[in-house]
Amino acid sequence: MPEDAIPESSSKKPDRFALVSLLVGIFVALLPWGLGMIGVTVNLWLGALVLAVAFGLIVYPLWTWEKFSRWHVVLRISTVVLAAIFYFALIGRQIYAQYQKDHPVTEISEVTITLPTPTPTPSPTPSPTPRQKTSRSISGLPKALVSPKPTPSPQLTTEEIAAAVAKKLNDERPLPIPTPTPTPKPCRGDDLNECSDAGLLEWGKPLYDRVRTIGDQYQKDFEFTAAHYSGDKFFKALEEVNRRTSDEYRDCCAEETLRYYKELTLRLSGGLQNNSFNEWTQRLLKPVGSDDWKSARNEGGEIIQSMAFKLFRLQLDLKLRIDTGKLRN
Question: Which of 16, 40, 143, 195 satisfies CB 3.0 to 4.6 Å to 200 for a cystine?
Answer without folding.
Answer: 195
